[in-house]
From TrEMBL:
This is Lipid droplet-regulating VLDL assembly factor AUP1. The gene is AUP1. Residues 367-376 have a biased composition (Low complexity). GO terms for biological process: ERAD pathway. The keyword Ribonucleoprotein does not apply. GO terms for cellular component: endoplasmic reticulum membrane; lipid droplet. Pfam families: CUE. One of its GO terms (molecular function) is ubiquitin binding. Its main location: endoplasmic reticulum. Residues 303-345 form the CUE domain.
Length: 423
């Protein structure tokens, strides 16, 4: 297993960031809307035909041809590599329609997990084998595998989708306890310009984008059947298969699980609400979701915390959360100070902490050879919120003069603090 940042496993922005791709997308927009309406009408007929016809080779061929009209194309490297005797297929999870696409190649059953069993889940191709109770689910899956002539199981041990471009989520062990032999399936999904999925998006949104765009290509690669070694645990079996699939896909296997993705999505949503990433994303030229994720990642970095504290010492009336949000984007103390002084970053000033009065001790020499008195209470009129008004009189000092005064104020406070610690 290799350790990478969890944010690299997901895509945060549906549309491309470069100007040329956005221009081409705007030119395609009218045609895409017409295609969306047409494919929605055709999609209803595909669903009716798939529900009416019995599961057979003829049905899969007809549905596959109609799905190509909907923009869903599926290809496989070599059909002979698929093990006809395999009872469990293990596949990585990229989109909410992976099981539907693989069902166009061979008949399979995908059990329903977590979601309630409704008509909608049945229409999406899931089978309820006891989702509410894991022992019941395992018992049903083992029973299905032991039945002669029953379709094999198609399982997604990641249990959550990723971008499919950087790494695999940690495989759950329960799919590997059903049968001692499994056949891994490496799935790659691609489409022009637009991401195939975005963290936090629903399956309905992904379906609309599938109908809107020209095509989505699913590439299936069959790996050799793997069997559990003698004395090998189910967890070791799962890790070994995960490594093999990661190598085949050209990505890394990670220790992050579905629960980690859920927690990451919650943190991302919280950052979006608290820090206002839209303004930060526009200022930095970075996509909104990616900026928020980067802010969340750098917020806990000790280096950025130290930089934020330095800015806080210079501008004590600025909230620390605002400073940390801008530091995460600029990564520069001077740039953040300039943004706050020029009003690029909006904030509500807060009262600086009161300095407790103390009896004046004897003066001590400063590092520069001069004497600084602890009794002199430093005041920083240039950092007062009243000087940041809109009138000309309140802004009589130039930007450079204010910055120089603020730096001098911070330097004197630092020297005083150092002298107090030495004494």
């Amino acid at each position: 297993m290799q350790s990478i940042n969890i944010e690299k496993l997901f895509v945060y922005d549906r549309l491309p960031g470069d100007s040329l791709s956005l221009l081409l997308f705007l030119l395609y927009l009218p045609f895409g809307l017409c295609l969306l309406l047409l494919r929605t009408f055709i999609g209803v007929h595909v669903f009716l035909i798939a529900s009416a016809l019995p599961d057979s080779l003829v049905r899969r061929f007809i549905v596959r041809v109609m799905c190509s009209v909907l923009g869903l194309f599926v290809s496989q490297d070599d059909p002979r590599k698929r093990d006809k005797t395999a009872r469990v297929f293990i596949c990585n999870h990229v989109t909410d329609f992976d099981h539907n696409v693989l069902n166009l190649l061979f008949s399979c059953v995908t059990p329903l997990l977590d979601s309630p069993a409704t008509v909608l889940t049945w229409a999406r191709g899931y089978t309820d084998l006891g989702r509410s109770h894991r022992p019941t689910l395992l018992s049903s899956c083992r029973k299905l595998c032991s039945q002669e002539g029953s379709p094999p199981l198609l399982l997604f041990p990641e249990e959550a989708t990723t971008s499919g471009q950087a790494g695999l989520l940690k495989f759950s062990t329960w799919p590997f306890s059903i049968n001692p032999s499994v056949q891994p399936v490496a799935l790659s999904v691609g489409r022009p310009a637009v991401a195939v999925n975005v963290i936090g998006s629903s399956w309905l949104q992904d379906l609309v984008w599938t109908f809107f765009l020209p095509f989505t290509h699913y590439q299936v690669r069959w790996l050799p059947t793997e069997s559990q070694h003698e004395g090998e645990t189910e967890d070791g079996f799962a890790k070994r298969v995960q490594e093999l699939m990661a190598v085949e896909l050209g990505v890394v296997s990670t220790p992050y699980s579905k629960a980690d993705k859920t927690e990451h999505a919650k943190r991302l949503a919280r950052v979006l609400r608290q820090t206002g990433p839209v303004a930060a994303g526009r200022a930095s030229g970075a996509p909104v979701g990616r900026t928020a994720a980067r802010q969340q990642d750098t917020r806990s970095d000790p280096t950025f915390q130290t930089m934020a504290q330095r800015v806080k010492e210079v501008l004590p009336h600025v909230p620390l959360a605002v400073i940390a949000s801008d530091i995460a984007v600029t990564k520069c103390v001077d740039t953040t100070i300039t943004n706050l002084l020029e009003g690029t970053v909006k904030f509500t000033p807060e009262d600086p902490p009161a300095v407790p009065s103390a009896s004046p001790p004897a003066p001590t020499p400063s590092p520069s050879g001069a004497y600084s008195s602890k009794s002199s209470q430093l005041s920083s009129p240039v950092t007062s919120a009243s000087l940041f008004g809109k009138s000309t009189g309140q802004r009589h000092l130039s930007l450079q003069e204010r910055k120089a005064a603020l730096y001098e104020y911070a330097r004197r406070k630092y020297l005083e603090k150092k002298d107090l610690q030495d004494s």
